[in-house]
Amino acid sequence: MSKPTPKLFRINTGSCNGCDVEFVATAFVDKFQLDKLGVELVEDISQANILVITGPLTARSEPFLKDYISRLSEPYAVVGIGTCSVTSGIFRDSYAINGPTDKVVDVDINIAGCPPRPHSIAEGIAKGIKILNQKASGEKVSKKIDMILQGFEAPKTFRGKISLHVEMCTACRTCETVCPSGAINITKVGDSYEHKVWHNTCCFCGNCGFFCPTGAIYNTNDFDTSKHQDEKYSDINLEYIKTDVCSCCKEVYKKPTKGLLGKAYVYDDVNKLNSNICPKCRKKENFKRMYS
Ligand code: SF4
Ligand code: SF4
Ligand code: SF4
Q1: pLDDT at 139 over 80
Q2: Containing domain of residue 252, as a range?
Q3: Is residue 144 included in any domain, yes or no?
Q4: Atom of ligand 3 nearest to the CA of 184
Q5: Burial class (CB in 10 A: 0-12, 13-18, 19+), 192
């Protein structure tokens, strides 16, 4: 069976328009290759076989989305653009939101980002086309798709997926507290702290890196956020921060980094003592040192 022409229809389910602007840039700027993918933009949903959705799915837009889906004819592929569509992002606990999108429709490809970079949108649509072709030919639909479009690079300063210098992290939880998307979760697991960042709900604001006292967490320039729906919850950055035993009270604690101690205490001998004891004992020891 010949491959169907990808006919793309876009619906906005309460987006701030940021994702829509990036979609337009993707659609009309040559270098992002949408035209090379043979995509046709259509204005009649009954002609479409690729449905692109932006926005967190507001309660008001839900009936419209359902209506559009009912008018699609099989086979079709669904691509969610933007962190709002993937997880409802920073809006997810709002009374006005019924999303994310996958509560209402079977999504094939998610493209996280607030908004995602046009390269990532083009890549997500290329993956959507691949799924459409597989559905049309009756082939088994891939559950994970490697990068299709090559040759794109984001500038070094681009705020992309989060990473962690694990040796610099003190598990202080500042990043978890300041993250507007609830993307960071730090939990005690055995003798370590598990530091987890969920890329699909991150809005790439850079708050975590800005407020981190040790410079441990940072945005990389990795822009490829287009993933299959099956990878929605597994696309994470996972690190384990090891703990130590306090040489004074024997409690388990996270050793501070040298640089951090150096900022707080200027004397080497004091730092030597401080580096082996927990914060509680550190307070007591320094109090004794100062007032005895
Ligand atoms: S993901 Fe960001 S840019 Fe896109 S609609 Fe939501 S708030 Fe706007
Ligand atoms: S990454 Fe930075 S802010 Fe987050 S827990 Fe580690 S040290 Fe604290
Ligand atoms: S960049 Fe950091 S603070 Fe901002 S949403 Fe992502 S994980 Fe949270």
Answers
A1: yes
A2: 244-291
A3: no
A4: 7
A5: middle
